[in-house]
Amino acid sequence: MDKITIDKTKNVPLVNFDQNGLLRIEGRSIPENASVFYAPLIKFVDELKVPCVYFDINLEYINTASSKQILMLLNTLDQNEKIGSVRLNWFYEEGDDDSIETAEVYEDSLRRIRFTYNEVAEVNCQKISCN
């Protein structure tokens, strides 16, 4: 498998997993069946063989089922001996302590993945009218 690309919807995040070790998940993760959604991603990182992985995770909301699958994904990545090193960029909205706590729980259970925490400003979407 060379690449996994999933378009973002209101329930599933954007996913870009490339064989070169660049991985990205972004959006909301509340799929109907989290284990089915994350299974190919877990398989992908289990089979990945690269000197270094750069993984960006920017999730504005994660339900419990997704959180468990993301931990399984990270554990699989962490245990993959065919990967030299893993650097994970965890993005969280300003003031979102729950997101930071979730990432810290993940980080504490992993031995090789190096986390970097990146605060982003909360995005306010407003309707713009053009007259």
Walk me through the topology.
Elements: E1 3-6, E2 14-18, E3 22-29, H1 34-47, E4 50-62, H2 64-79, E5 83-93, H3 97-108, E6 113-120
Helix pairs in contact: 1-2
Outline the structure in words.
The protein is an alpha/beta fold. The protein has a domain at 46-97. Helix content is 32%, strand content 37%. It has three helices and six strands; from the N terminus they run βββαβαβαβ. The chain has helices spanning 34-47, 64-79, 97-108; strands spanning 3-6, 14-18, 22-29, 50-62, 83-93, 113-120. The chain has a six-stranded mixed beta sheet with strand order 1-2-3-4-5-6, with helices on one face. α3 links the parallel β5 and β6 (113-120). α1 (34-47) packs parallel to α2 (64-79). The protein is globular, with a radius of gyration of 15 Å. The termini are far apart.
Which features characterize this protein?
3 helices, single chain, alpha/beta, 6 strands, 131 residues
What overall form do the CA principal axes indicate? globular
* Euclidean distance between termini CA atoms: 49 Å
Tally of extended strands?
6
Biggest β-sheet, characterized? 6 strands, mixed
Please state the average pLDDT score.
Answer: 92
Summarize the structure.
By secondary structure, the chain is α/β, with parallel strands linked by helices. It contains 3 helices and 6 strands.
